[in-house]
Amino acid sequence: MARAPWRLAPLTRISERQALLKTVPMRSCNTLFVPPPQLPFTGFEVLFLGTGAGSPSVRRNPTGVCLRLARSNWMFDCAEGSLRQLIKSVVRVPLTTKFFVSHLHGDHVYGLPGILCTLDNHNAEYKDPQTKEKAPRPIDVYGPLGLFSYLNTAFSTSSTWLANLKITVHELVSPEMLNKTSKHEKFMRNAPKHPSLKRKWVHVESDGNGDVWNVLDDGKVIVKAATLKHTVTSFGYVVEEYPVPGKLDLNALRKRGLPPGPKYGTLKLGGSVELPSGEIIHASEVTGPKARGRKVAILGDSADSSRMFDIAQNCDVLVHEATLSHDMVKQAVHRGHSTARMAGYAAKKMNATLLALTHFSHRFRHWSADAKSRSTLHLALEAQGSFGRRAVVPASDFLRIPIPRLPHE
Questions:
Q1: On the chain, which terminus has fewer CB atoms closer than 10 Å, C or N?
Q2: Are residues 68 and 156 in the same domain?
Q3: In the β-sheet with 221-228, what is the strand arrangement from edge to edge?
């Protein structure tokens, strides 16, 4: 008899990177208060704005995750109330520049129009970095087919002008998705277009292991996406930094007669420079090993995340839903969701460093060690069994997970 793929596995020792991430406690911060602002910012941090499933509760907002980067914030799903959560958090709202929507269920997208309206108010004095002239600020929104129609309808019917933003909606499509377009979506393609919205399609590609959408590559980070099994089209996203150049060996450069100057920058970027003697120094001769870029996978609602296994391989943090416990697996899968054990199995297949569980059913209490009560602690313990590691945290609203960079990997 074949075993279920999310069978229990023995616990193992944690790695060096997990040791750096172990400061994230299993009992995460109080959901009613912002965590201490002195928590160091690493330039690559996952911040949970909403961790509940379906609707708001006293302790949990519906789904919303913010990826804090060095100079900007990226939002992954925006449920109702996400704007208020952003304001209450350590995030500077005006720095939010990109939005990634997993699917078009209301508990993942109803807060998006409101956040965009607030960004419009914050950018009245925005100036183009190149021309230094006042201009609409570019905002990018990524998600499934139908996202443009949703925003177009919301802004058009509410007479929202958005004079200070230029929003490009990138819809992830495949031939199959376009062939199955609903009658409503076909009708909406002929609807008047809001002047602040622009539509683009990101077409699917195959990497030999399945369908992948190459969503974004800005020279610093790469974003890829793959589909998840849900009741509607749903995506998971992977964000990965480019490797960081190694440090220059200053002693070696001085010995070879190259004083500090602009040529150091050329070498650090991987180039070659010429000495006054005519000798050529290549970067590989005087730089240390590159630091591996940090990597995070943020998945939407899913009853099967196997299409993410390849592109999310070796991620530092996996954000995965755990709507129910495994004794309710049939109900979870029927509704397009995962159990905690299924989330742990996905983390194992991706070789994730840390698994952050989210999207909890309201039947699970925020925290309880009582063996007779249902709580997110029990979901975390269930996920540990199938993950085979102890690095599992049940997320709560405002939990911050700083992702450090190791110098040599």
A1: N
A2: yes
A3: 205-206, 211-217, 221-228, 234-241, 295-299, 317-321, 354-358, 392-394
The two tokens of residue 301 are 């609602």
| pTM metric for this prediction | 0.86
274 with 323, same domain: the answer is no
Which residues are catalytically annotated?
A: 107
Write out the chain's pLDDT in tens, 409 residues. Answer: 454 555 444 444 445 555 555 445 444 433 333 345 556 788 999 999 999 998 988 889 999 999 999 999 999 999 999 999 999 998 999 999 999 999 999 999 999 999 999 999 999 999 999 999 999 999 999 999 999 999 999 999 999 999 999 999 999 999 999 988 777 777 787 889 999 999 999 999 987 678 999 999 999 999 999 999 999 999 999 999 998 877 888 888 888 888 888 888 888 777 888 887 888 988 888 887 888 899 999 999 999 999 999 999 999 999 999 999 999 999 999 999 999 999 999 999 999 999 999 999 988 877 655 555 688 888 999 999 999 988 999 999 999 999 988 764 4
Q: Is residue 31 part of a domain?
A: yes
Whether residue 219 lies inside any domain: the answer is yes
* Domain-terminating residue out of 264, 282, 300: 282
Are residues 377 and 312 located together in one domain of the fold?
yes
In a domain, 199, yes or no: yes
Instruction: For residue 184, give every residue at least 6 positions away whose Cβ sits within 8 Å of its Cβ, in sequence order, or none.
Output: 149
Note whether residue 5 is domain-resident.
Answer: no
Cα–Cα distance measured from residue 353 to residue 18, given in angstroms and rounded to the nearest whole number:
6
